[in-house]
Design a protein that fits this description.
Elements: E1 3-9, E2 13-20, E3 23-31, E4 41-50, E5 55-59, E6 66-69, H1 77-89, E7 122-129, E8 138-140, E9 145-146, E10 150-154, E11 159-161, H2 168-181, E12 186-190, H3 199-220, E13 227-230, H4 235-243, E14 248-253, H5 256-269, E15 277-279, H6 286-289, H7 292-299, E16 303-305, E17 311-316, E18 320-326, H8 336-358, E19 362-367, H9 374-387, E20 395-397, E21 405-410, H10 440-453, E22 459-463, H11 465-472, H12 480-488, E23 492-496, E24 505-509, E25 515-516
């Protein structure tokens, strides 16, 4: 699979498109100086305890207080509270040696939040979910600092290896390496990307994360909540960190500064791939050049068409999302069951892409075309399961029911992407009414006469193909264009443009190609 990342940078922010085999699968947008991104660390102040919800509301500087549930407190929250208190109020910032920090007793899983945060303390928290709609951010006290090969988790000494590393020998090798280089009071999660890596590479990654934790300690000194203590990497670098692999062949940006930053970052984490970063300076919008704009318009509407003529209808309600699979104009070979299977398999591929692209979260119900044979149902659900393996969001798929419905739950970490694909009609301006089409040729005739009177003798008229065909209808001496020539002794060149609405047209100077503005 060939992966590409296209970065469209502007003054307002950065838009990032991820392509797999030239097909758009993820679209990210980050505003300039964006706050409350997933992974950001804040010093917050507990404002309100909600015993009924077993949760607390924490002030982190957002317009609405952030939500912190007991299950997101972390077993080591008492150690975190002690660390936060010491780091903020200790007069000597150099004296806090984390390696010798003494952890407090863990909390129980079934406890109550009022027993832990009753004093409404200052607390170090991490953004778990960005603000969505009318809700503030969701927080976690399970602090984690992700790197390229490992994830650092303070206040424990556990080492865990990614379940996607299947070799027992490799797991044991990585376990031994991490045990030999890990500082005290830090847990380490070894990521899938660490498979086959050497001690030096793992040690460099781990050391950088320990350095980040030291920076957090410095930033907490004398801090007054709410305050951002550490910001997650810019979106571009965080995506590269999580996804970069040998299958990445191209990373392109239309902004030189961003290009240099990405090249510098890749130079640190994967020097052998530094040459895949390129600067785009074609002049044409970068998303247009790589066909992304067209894919966005085709992929974000209510109806999503597929190659065979089948299509999906995607609807949203307050409680869930619904995806309806329709056969559309797909040619039937007479075997209804086989035709339904082919349509559902094609739909499964598009559904997996749409979930990632729109970042749909919560409950998703898919209404597949009915199939009678259990083997066919199993084939469709196995296909969708395999296709969603590349989805970074946690998800669960249930088997297809006898009614042809599949239930999916999917984690959503950022606001759902909604893009308006409909455009306002340039002719009616949204009113739904235009001038009578019978008068278009009369209006054109008046405009031609006016331009000739103004001294224009070389004219090119560009219009919709239907309008051009109407002007040519009748052939030599009988068409409307010939009528203009016979009356004015000026030949008008006709050009077609499929993008023009029926009643829209423009005149250009045939010699210079300059647009002629009608008064």
């Amino acid at each position: 699979m060939i992966k590409e990342m296209i970065i469209d940078a502007s003054d307002e922010g950065v838009e990032i498109a991820l392509l797999e085999n030239k097909k758009l699968v993820e679209l990210h947008y980050e505003k300039t100086n964006a706050s409350f991104a997933v992974g950001d660390l804040y010093l917050g102040k507990v404002k309100k305890l909600m015993p009924g919800l077993n949760a607390a509301f924490v002030d982190v500087g957002y317009e609405r207080d952030a939500f912190l549930h007991y299950t997101d407190l972390s077993p080591y929250v008492r150690s975190l509270l002690k660390f936060t208190r010491n780091a903020v109020h200790n007069p000597d910032r150099e004296s806090l040696d984390f390696a010798s920090f003494r952890n407090e007793e863990e909390i129980v899983k079934s406890g109550k939040i009022v027993d832990v945060l009753n004093s409404r303390p200052e607390i170090l928290v991490q953004i778990l979910k960005e603000p969505i709609s009318t809700k503030g951010p969701r927080l976690s006290c399970e602090i984690s600092l992700p790197g390229r090969f490992v994830v650092l988790t303070p206040f424990n000494n556990f080492i865990s290896i990614s379940r996607k590393i299947h070799s027992g020998e490799e797991r044991k090798r990585l376990q031994n390496i991490v045990e030999s280089i890990k500082p005290n009071n830090f847990g380490v999660i070894v990521r899938t990307a660490a498979e086959g890596m050497h001690t030096a590479e793992l040690h460099a990654d781990l050391s950088a994360l320990v350095g980040q934790w030291s920076k957090i300690q410095e930033n907490l000194h004398n801090a007054v909540p709410p305050k951002r203590v550490l910001s997650e990497q810019v979106k571009t670098n965080s995506i590269i960190r999580d996804l970069l692999s040998d299958s990445f062949q191209n990373i392109v940006s239309n902004e030189q500064t961003v290009t240099n930053e990405v090249k510098e970052y890749i130079g640190k984490i994967a020097p052998e791939q530094e040459n895949i970063v390129n600067y785009y300076s074609n002049g044409r919008p970068i998303f247009d050049h790589y066909g992304i704009t067209k894919q966005v318009k085709a992929s974000f509407g209510k109806t999503v068409n597929m190659q065979s003529g089948s299509y999906l209808v995607i609807e949203h309600t307050e409680a869930l999302h619904v995806v309806d699979v329709n056969s559309g104009t797909r040619q039937s070979d007479g075997n209804q069951e086989e035709n339904a299977l082919r349509t559902n398999l094609e739909a499964a591929e598009e559904i997996a892409r749409q979930l990632r692209l729109r970042d749909l979260g919560g409950i998703i119900i898919v209404d597949f075309i009915d199939m009678k044979h259990p083997d066919n149902k199993r084939k469709v659900q196995d296909t969708l399961y395999q296709l969603m393996k590349s989805d970074r969001a946690r998800h669960t798929l249930l088997p297809i029911t006898k009614f042809g419905l599949m239930q999916i739950t999917r984690q959503r970490l950022r606001p759902e992407i909604t893009i308006a694909t409909a455009e306002m009609c340039s002719q009616c301006k949204g009113t739904g009414k235009v001038g009578p089409s019978l008068l278009i040729s009369d209006e054109l005739g008046k405009d031609v006469q006016y331009l000739i009177n103004q001294g224009h003798k070389k004219l090119t008229l560009t219009a919709n193909p239907i309008l051009v065909a109407w002007l040519k209808k009748g052939g030599p001496l009988k068409s409307i264009r010939w009528k203009w020539y016979l009356e004015n002794k000026v030949w008008v060149e006709l050009k077609t443009d499929n993008n023009y609405p029926l009643s829209e047209y423009y005149f250009h100077n045939k010699a210079t190609s300059e647009l002629i503005h009608l008064k």
